[in-house]
Amino acid sequence: MDTEVSPKLFIGIDVHKRQWSVSIFTANCHHKTFSQVPNPKALKSYLDKFFPKHQIICCYEACKFGFWIYRELCSFGYECLVINPADLPTTNKESSEKTDPVDSRKMAKALRAGLLRGIHVPTQETEGDRQLFRYRKRLWADLVRVKNRIKDKLLQNGIETPHKYDNPYWTKDFLDWLAVVELPSASSRLVMDLLLDQFEFTYRHFLKVSISVRSLQRKAKYKANSKLLRQIPGIGPLTTVQLLTEIEDIHRFRNFKHFNSYIGLKPMVHSSGESDRKGYMTYRHHQGLRSSLIECAWT
């Protein structure tokens, strides 16, 4: 008895907050490009009506919307890829005439041709842990920003920082000095007091989040690997959490070369004929992991 093979449908989705641009291709032709509300259920309703017996293969670019779209599309029984936008084949014409419909058609055509490879999609738990770690990094940037604003007020008013406080470490004595230092006007003093309040709030919040981040390495799913990573010289608790949440599963890399390519610790290469040029470290890298591992190597 012959088994009937379901025809395939290739769908490129250009996702945005207010609407999605969707392009649908069959194996032989371009069916339609249209806009829809930003909801996977609306797409499912359309496909159930017009393509009830097709095998659905879809893709969208990795973006700020995370992976909930991927998970919901997969729950419908669709095959879904989340792709790196930089790896999408693009012609010069498509670059110079970029629109949402063009992008969705481009994705669908590349998907049909088998030119796309999806990125790794973490579990919801790992994605949440990753968000917590990244939130701590953003808080640290906020803290540095507030510090710079306070220093800027001193410079702006011609006040020299005492030599014993002129270093990256903000002690309680330095904060007490900032709270009483004389400024040329009442408004300047008010601005300084408000900045110090902002610093205190941000710092306390940063410490609270840091405790939560450090506690991640004690979770059952991370505990064994965390102990192994902490045995490596230079790897501290924060880098351990970062490696565990960003990589999730080391076995998803085929070999060291594949893993190193993901981190970005390799030079750029331009080879043609007898010319073989190697440049600086590649711009294709995991920004957080590469910088953290380099800092770990310094120690």
TrEMBL record:
**Pfam annotation, one family:** Transposase_20
Which Gene Ontology BP terms does the record give? DNA transposition
Q: Name one GO molecular function term.
A: transposase activity
Query: Where's the Transposase IS110-like N-terminal domain?
Result: 11-156
Q: Which residues form the Transposase IS116/IS110/IS902 C-terminal domain?
A: 227-299
This chain belongs to the protein called: IS110 family transposase
